[in-house]
Specification:
A hairpin with a 3-residue loop joins strand 1 and strand 2. Helix 2 packs across helix 3 and helix 16 packs antiparallel against helix 17. The chain starts with a helix and ends with a helix. Strands 3, 4, 5, 12, 13, 14, 15, 16 and 17 form a nine-stranded mixed beta sheet that branches. By secondary structure, the chain is an alpha/beta fold. Bound molecules: nicotinamide-adenine-dinucleotide (NAD). Nicotinamide-adenine-dinucleotide binds next to helix 7 and strand 7.
């Protein structure tokens, strides 16, 4: 069967060949055995819904074995026989070009160079799924290949509910992931619903087909490291940045460290993950011996080298050694996957990777205890180094939250955290409040030359805007222009021809319109997909991360994220998604995103103008209402140039008067 035929065939009517379990590839950990016997019956019944009855005899025992061995039913047998990667858009069988572009985005997410556990359909973060099983993948691809621009595909947590009639301005796909009744949103609820095959953890860009590998996060990480270094004063040269994680997104840290010009040391316990980043050129050196690493660090700092070192081992061992040797660390953080602490996101010190994996499935209580002890030790070492001058920040991975739950010494007397989150100190006040966020695009021709042209267009557009930018955002504009000028040289592409660029509403809109015009004139050889990750000004309500700098008591509400996705849905998005849990953990956040295919048409230009405007200004308006000064400035500026925009502004109250009135 050709690639196109296999896609059109959907779930094959004949049993495909069983596939051997590939030991070379990075696999998801075994999930814990959470279902009661009757629920296991339900899980199998649910899985068999995708197949005709005559195949059940063969499939039922196979799926039962998968559930027993892996804690989930992935339907490995149904992995496609073709190679998984994003093809140029015209190679997909399709009646809708928009749907073809979505197929390419899905295949890019699942590309083994890009995905963390590709055979389990996990894209990043240990549990960030695109689909729950391979039957869903096949069915979705078939639906996309046959749908028209008068239909919308409805996705429930990886499961395609079906194609429903709509119209050309409607989204082609509406995605929800992990949306549950709030009282059923504890981590074990995810384990149970996911094992039953009725829900999944979509992370942010995993379940929304917008993951572009570690590049997606490099720009944001670079901005964060650069600004953190600025906070410490002086030049970044010779400053030491210590952190953990060389996984999906965390793998961006060494690259960002190099771009920011510091010495970075990143601990990674999984040798396969470390090797993958090393082979891709994202980290310069691998070390597995602390006695050799410590002198190497001293040498790099003394020589003010720009270099990224990886410690292949447990981050707690690294922190404790740095503290014991009184090494001066300037910047510290952590990007282990603590949004998922009990199922493989964090590996406790003192145990091998293999032993941890066994324990989390066979003895989850003991594993939990080990993780909590490990976090306490990690925090103790970090506290010592912080007392010696290190600036430590939480990187939005629930490190402080889980450490506090573990009883680590991480709280101040008033119950708040000892250390800020990177959003409170950097991304919130300097970026999100002004509407700067992780705008991204993917060239559907898959040609590097198209990506280069889009980079050039973006530099041109941003330089023109920067010439009249107010002083409040001049620095951000300068950093972003520097980023995009350098982006091509930094070899950031893994998988699709994609680019990320932090930009505000004006920047995003003008860049997108310039791309649309270039497509119309034939200067770009294919359509472009616009999008962003969910880590943005408007898309995400996450009290310990994106909205951690909201101080009016509303950071535990999720109106903004829900409104955002609804508003994007009727203003021209090609697909929208809303998720429970991305980034910091199931039940801890609601986040949404969009994708928009632009093809040079007038319709595309209208979608760009209408949708991007809402997608950014919704969040600025909310942040302004929360009394964030930068957001107030940004929304007043926007109202001055957009007559139909009328936003409710807060009146300031005198706190002394309030206190007196209350006494
Ligand atoms: N706010 C942001 O911009 C932002 C950016 C990136 C990541 N994050 C958060 O950071 C976390 C990491 O994301 P990811 O996609 O890289 O996840 P990931 O699971 O792909 O990578 C985490 C890595 O940490 C390693 N690890 C776990 N415990 C360790 C330990 N004790 N010592 C050394 N290494 C250890 C794992 O082996 C894994 O490779 C997530 O919680 C994510 O939400 C936030």
């Amino acid at each position: 069967m050709t690639f196109q035929e296999e896609i059109l065939a959907g779930i094959p009517t004949q049993l495909p060949e069983a596939q051997p379990y590939d030991k070379e590839i990075n696999h998801a950990p075994k999930r814990k055995d959470i279902l009661k016997p009757e629920e296991k019956v339900l899980a199998l019944k649910n899985a068999l819904r995708y197949f005709p009855q005559e195949l059940h005899q063969a499939l039922a025992p196979e799926f039962a074995a998968e559930l027993k061995t892996y804690g989930r039913i992935y339907m490995y047998r149904y992995q496609p026989s073709y190679k998984m990667y994003a093809r140029p858009v015209d190679e997909y069988p399709a009646k809708s070009r928009q749907a073809a572009a979505i197929m390419a985005m899905i295949q890019n997410n699942l590309d083994p160079r890009v995905a963390q556990h590709p055979h389990e359909l996990i894209i990043y973060g240990g549990n960030g799924a695109i689909f729950q099983n391979w039957a869903q993948y096949r069915l979705v691809m078939q639906y996309l290949a046959t749908m028209t621009d008068e239909q919308t595909l409805v996705m429930y947590s990886g499961h395609p509910l079906g194609l429903f009639p709509s119209h050309k301005d409607a989204p082609r796909v509406i995605v929800t992931n992990g949306m549950v009744i709030p009282n059923y949103s504890k981590p074990d609820d995810w384990e149970r619903f996911n094992a039953l095959g009725v829900s999944q953890y979509g992370q942010m860009t995993a379940g929304s087909y917008m993951y572009i590998g570690p590049q997606g996060i490099v720009h944001g990480t670079t901005i964060t490291v650069m600004n953190a270094a600025r906070k410490q004063g002086g030049s970044p040269a010779g400053k030491l940045f210590v952190t953990a994680g060389l996984g999906g997104m965390s793998g961006a840290q060494p690259k960002a460290g190099n771009i920011a010009g510091v010495v970075s040391v990143t601990a990674e316990i999984n040798p396969k993950a470390a090797r993958k980043r090393y082979d891709q050129g994202w980290v310069d050196e691998l070390h597995d011996n602390l006695d050799e690493l410590i002198p190497r660090i001293r040498k790099a700092v003394a020589a003010r080298e720009v270099v990224s070192l990886a410690y292949v081992g447990n981050v707690v061992d690294l922190w404790e050694r740095l503290a014991a040797d009184h090494i001066h660390v300037d910047l510290g953080s952590d990007q282990t996957s603590l949004h998922n602490p009990w199922a493989g996101g964090y590996y406790p010190v003192g145990y091998t990777l293999e032993r941890s994996k066994e324990m989390m499935a066979d003895d989850p209580d003991a594993f939990r205890g080990a993780v909590q002890k490990s976090l306490c030790r990690q925090v103790a070492a970090i506290n010592k180094l912080a007392a010696e001058g290190m600036y430590f920040f939480d990187y939005g991975n629930a490190f402080l939250l889980e450490s506090s739950r573990a009883g680590a010494d991480v709280l101040k007397a008033d119950g708040t955290f000892r250390y800020p989150s990177y959003v409170q100190d950097i991304m919130g006040p300097l970026y999100f409040d002004y509407g700067f966020g992780p705008f991204r695009w993917v060239c559907m021709s898959e040609k590097p030359s198209d990506l280069q042209k889009t980079d050039e267009l973006a530099v041109k557009v941003l330089s023109e805007i920067a010439a009249h930018s107010p002083e409040e955002i001049a620095g951000q504009m300068r950093d972003n222009i520097h980023w995009i000028r350098e982006a091509g040289k930094n070899n950031l592409v893994v998988g699709s021809q994609a680019r990320i660029l932090y930009a505000d509403c004006e920047g995003r809109t003008q860049i997108a319109l310039a791309f649309n015009e270039a497509i119309r004139k034939g200067e770009l050889e294919g359509p472009v997909v616009l999008g962003r990750d969910h880590h943005d000004v408007s898309g995400t309500d996450s009290p310990f991360r994106e909205t951690s700098n909201i101080y009016d008591g509303s950071r535990f509400t999720a109106d903004m994220a829900v409104q955002n996705v609804i508003g994007d849905g009727f203003r021209g998005a090609t697909w929208v998604s809303i998720h429970n849990g991305g980034g910091v953990g199931w039940g801890e956040v609601i986040n949404g995103g969009f994708g928009m295919v632009i093809d040079g048409s007038e319709d595309s230009a209208r979608h760009i103008r209408e949708m991007l405007f809402w997608d950014v200004n919704n969040g600025i308006a909310r942040r302004s209402w929360a009394r964030n000064e930068a957001a107030r400035f940004a929304i007043e500026r926007e109202m001055a140039r957009t007559p139909h925009l009328k936003v409710t502004l807060p009146n300031e109250a005198d706190e002394e008067l309030i206190r007196k009135s209350l006494n």
